[in-house]
Amino acid sequence: MAGIYIHIPFCKKLCFYCDFYRVITPEDTSVFIDTLLKEASLRKDYLGTEPVTTIYLGGGTPSVFSIKDLSTILNKIYKDFEVTKSCEITIELNPDDVNPAYLSGLKDLGINRISLGIQSWRDVDLKMLNRRHDSARAVTALKDTLKSGFENVTIDLIYGIPGMSIKEWASNLEFSFSFDIKHLSAYHLTIEKGTVFGKMLEKGLFTEIDEEESTSLFNMLIEKSEDAGLIHYEISNFGKPGYFSIHNSNYWKQIIYLGLGPSAHSFNGYSRQWNISNLKSYIKAVNTGKQYFESEELDIKTRFNEYIMTSLRTMWGIDLEYVEKTFEKEGYDYIVNLSGKFRDYGLMKLDKKTLVLTNQGKMISDNIISEFMMPGDE
């Protein structure tokens, strides 16, 4: 199996919290599309003979593209790669871009999973985040999406927004589950350096919420999601049975993938590549035959650490049989011995040959994962 991620770096408005590579949408995007198609041709052998089982159009805001432009991109992928008939094809949509005609066009393209960037149902939050939609538009967009026949619909929410109480967060969740959504991705607001919020924080104009409040919000997220019949299968992701994100699950299971577009990452099991995070430089390099990505070979310790970092975030946890087979007795003993104290404290549990975080452990997952990281050679 393999996946393809396509990074569309364009946004009509830049959110204050986002640190993904993105730029304001230019009037003419044809040069970018031509370059993306060329990169696909250049990279068509990267996945070897592995069939493509997931395609993910992310960004940025992929929904700034017309149906015709998206068709051009997907047809190129179908031409250059072996795409399975049951391929999960996801597109991220901004609520402002959603209408019945556009949704019908997406369906005709074979797109079968919609990720809607709601972020919050409260206008005060949307304004603070500098989103370009309001709550009324979000409601209409979600209703239209569900009416259009898309069964596999996920929404994004953000919590930990200053000024949002636990009661208001509970209301956000309850309103979300009043719709027939099959999946929820919920992310704690993090302040990244270089973002508008990051600069405000440096100047003392922004205050993050405290750890105790974050824990309460996370507990509420788990409680309300499970009450709605969703399974907590990854730290930030909840889905009904049969509706987990296959594409993202494959990332966490370390299945190979190709990334196309500026800043996109690729992984083949033993090395990682990442494209230039600059639109003009990316376009120039691809079209002049220059190298447009950097890469690194992953030594055994790096591969071990990446496996720990991804697997511990999921309900599948650390597969000790896989560890023993892949990282031999040294890796197996390292994990089993280190996990002892976390199991004693009720932060991890051993289920047959699998180590997973408990709900209590999930709340401090970053700290636990960091302790499992095997130090590199000096």
Describe it for me?
- By secondary structure, the chain is α/β, with parallel strands linked by helices.
- The chain has 2 domains: 2-251, Alpha-Beta Barrel (TIM Barrel), CATH 3.20.20.70; 312-372, no CATH class.
- 42% of the residues lie in helices and 22% in strands.
- It starts with a strand and ends in a 6-residue tail after the last helix.
What does the secondary structure layout of this molecule look like, with pairings?
Layout: E1 2-8, E2 10-11, E3 23-24, H1 30-42, E4 52-59, H2 67-80, E5 83-93, H3 100-108, E6 113-119, H4 123-129, H5 135-147, E7 152-159, H6 166-177, E8 183-188, H7 196-202, H8 211-227, E9 231-234, E10 237-239, H9 246-252, E11 257-260, E12 265-267, E13 271-275, H10 279-288, E14 293-297, H11 300-311, E15 318-319, H12 320-344, E16 348-351, E17 354-357, H13 359-362, H14 365-372
Parallel strand pairs: 1-4, 1-11, 2-3, 4-5, 5-6, 6-7, 7-8
Antiparallel strand pairs: 8-10, 9-10, 12-13, 13-14, 15-17, 16-17
Helix pairs in contact: 1-2, 1-10, 6-8
Compose a concise summary of this entry.
The protein is α/β, with parallel strands linked by helices and 378 residues long. The protein contains 14 helices and 17 strands.
